[in-house]
Structure formats: C-alpha cells, structure tokens
Amino acid sequence: MNWGPAREETLPQLVRFLSDREWGCVTFSSRLVNGGTLTLPARRDNRISVCRSDGTDSICGAVLHTGHGFYYPVFHPDDGAASELWISELRKALRLSTSRVHSIMGVKRDVAALESLVPRIASHQIEYYLMVETRNTQTTSSTLPAGLEFRRATPRDAGNLFPLQRAYELEEVLLPGDRFDAETCMYHLGQNLAEQIIYVAEIDGYPVAKAGTNARGFGFDQIGGVFTRPEYRGRGIGAAIMTRLMRMLASERKQCCLFVKIQNAPAIAMYRRLGYVVRDEFRITYY
Description:
Strand 12 (220-228), helix 7 and strand 13 form a beta-alpha-beta unit. 30% of the residues lie in helices and 32% in strands. The mean pLDDT is 92. It contains 8 helices and 14 strands. The chain has 287 residues and is an alpha+beta fold.
C-alpha cells in the first residue's frame, strides 16, 4: 500500500471511496464540492493524502489535513491500523512527529487509529453518536407557542442571530478553559449564513431556536448547530424547525446525518422521533 498526495487524476477514485461511507465524513467530502463542481481544494487551505492498494487504482484510505492542524481520517474498515507497514507509511505521509496537530475528527475507530500516531497527549476527547436519517420521518404533536414563525435565515440576520449563536457555543462548543471569542463567532456565523442552509424560529422577531447544515457533501448534508433557548425547550420547537430543514434538504434530494453528544439524551430522543438511527460512534480529539 502506498500513501501519497491526492491528485486530480485520482479524484474520481477518491469521490467513489468517500461516497461509499459519506454518512460518516461529510465534513471531508464537502471540501471537494466547489459551486456544484467536484474538484480538489486549493493546497494552501487543505491537503489530502490517499492510500492506494498496490497494483490498483482503488483507494483504501484518505486523510484531510489543513494548515491549522485539523485532521479528518477516513479508513477502510478492513485496513485501519492492522498493518505495521500501513501505519509506518501513513506516519511518513503526514509527518505527524513534526506537524502541528490541533484536532482530529471523524468516525471513532478512524480517529483512534490516527491518535496512535500523534506523539502528544490529547487535552480533550468529545464522544458522540453519529446518526443518519432513515426517511421514516415523524412529526411531533406538541402544541407550539403562539406567534411562532419559521423562516430561512440570510446573512442580513447575523446581528440578530448572534446572541443565539453565542448561547449555543457557550453550551455546546466551548471547551473547558477556553475563552469565548465574539469576533470569531460573528465571522463564522456570517460565513455559515452565506454558505449553508439555516432556519430560525422566531416569536415577534425574537430568535428562539435555530437549525442548519454545517457541511454539504455529494449526497449527504450534515446538520449542526441545532439549539433552542432553555426557556423554550420541551415545547416541540426543536423538532418543528428540524422538520422544516429536512423537508428543504429532501427537496434537493439530499440525505441528512448529524453527530450528537452521547450524554445529550433529550436531543437523541428527538432525533429518533424524527427518524434518525445511530449508525456509528464519532469522536473529536483536541490537542
């Protein structure tokens, strides 16, 4: 097996490899989608290493890595960390002994295999369930609050949605010991509003919940940033806004997947009611 940089001539094989398991790697596959065209990302922003079986053009492993130290591994279940040669060649390809590693994200077994090559101790590991829509979507019968309205948000909503995004990041994203950065939060919010599909629920113009995509791949879209203000929870708003988002994505013939913290029982129960099932375990490791 041979690890090396992905090239345009290997793009069809890479797309085929990722498509077979895209429910677990939309963050990766979305980097190959540029305005509806499939292409390798600019190397200054993202690099992709691929492993090809000896004597064939088929790909059996791929790792997306950025200049900021973010890594997303996708390995064939039959290969993984089973071969010492495979591990040795991957270590050389990624130069992990000298490279800066900030975080590793992906299906848990793939992340664990890559962790074994990093000569550092992780600072945080967050465990999730990876859930996939089964198309057996169910709607809830909860009585929604009076005056509640749903709509798709636009970049002009950034200022109004900032407090909601801030509350979400403080509760779900910020790691222990980290400081909330308002400027970075606002920048990424504006970027997501421009590039992703985000729905907002409002009462008299006041945002109380949101849900949207955070990565758009070949046939799957990944949903993230689902959040309802604490005082409005338990009233069916989260399920209602998710239903509208999923209908929108279904109209584009996209399937949905998401990852949710394993201890978040209320969210897991809601997703199950909406027709999602646990497909695998997911992990984000920080250094």
